[in-house]
Amino acid sequence: MTTTGTYTPKPGAAPLGRMIRAQAVLETKMLLRNGEQLLLTVVIPALVLVLFSSVDIIDTGRDKAVDFLTPGVLALAVMSTAFTGQAIATGFERRYGVLKRLASSPLPRWALMTAKTASVLVTEILQVILLTAIAFALGWSPHGNPLAVLLLLILGTAAFSGLGLLMAGTLKAEATLAAANLAFLLLLVAGGVMVPLSKFPQGAQDFLSLLPITALSNGLRDVLQHGAAMPWGDLGILAAWAVVGLAAAGRFFRWE
């Protein structure tokens, strides 16, 4: 006769919180080990900040170049991680069947997305620390409300994450790679990151001001450079993009 006892180790899935933490750590390590991702998330924003702050190329009026550029580069860092990097990585995970296998594990699909979001946030924290240190070394003198900056970064992350996941979940991996990199380059020039929006024709300004990268860079610039209390207009644009992007990603994302 066999007695009933407690198996050690106990069979079954780990607690949900532990699974999410483990997946988030894995996602972060994979992101930081990827050379292309590091180029997008760290090297390019840092080079843009150092180069264009040190060389008199951009006409920023009476403002110091670093004071104008730093908010835009912070916005660029958020876009590179939450949109470009996440879209490319998730697109190829989908192509190679990684997402299909993960979806069959005890980790729920929403928890997998939570882990990916946590990985993006960790990477962005590292980006902000590095870029802020570089900016201070170049003579940056920020102003404004830290809460407004935090809200802008959170809503910007949500907006770009939704758009990145939507692209990765609906296009083929190669198309995602091309489209995400093209969008990165176009928005780097036309999104108010390096070039003031006032340099564009009025019709183009009206359109560009509605883009998430422009709302994020202008909002951060209003707060950090001009000391604005709370840029409600830019926050509203980012919130609208976040709702639409995340809802569309949740509706149309294909795991296979």
Walk me through this protein's architecture.
The protein has 256 residues and is mostly helical. It has one domain. 73% of the residues lie in helices and 0% in strands. The protein has ten helices and no strands. It has helices spanning 16-33, 35-54, 65-95, 98-103, 109-137, 146-170, 173-190, 202-208, 212-224, 232-252. α2 packs parallel to α5 (109-137) and α3 (65-95) packs antiparallel against α5 (109-137). The longest helix has 31 residues, at 65-95. The chain is globular, with a radius of gyration of 20 Å. The termini are far apart. The model has no long low-confidence stretch (mean pLDDT 87).
Summarize the structure.
By secondary structure, the protein is mainly α. The protein contains 10 helices and no strands.
Query: Radius of gyration, rounded?
Result: 20 Å
* Morphology: globular
Percentage of helical residues?
A: over 70%
Low-confidence stretches: none
Counting DSSP H or I runs of 4 or more residues, the number of helices is 10
Secondary structure category = mainly alpha
The largest β sheet comes out as: none
Give me the strand/helix succession: HHHHHHHHHH
Report the mean per-residue pLDDT as an integer: 87
Number of structural units classed as domains: 1
Q: Assess the beta-strand content as a share of residues.
A: under 5%
Query: How many beta-strand elements?
Result: 0
Terminus-to-terminus distance: 48 Å
Note the main attributes of this structure.
10 helices, single chain, 256 residues, mainly alpha
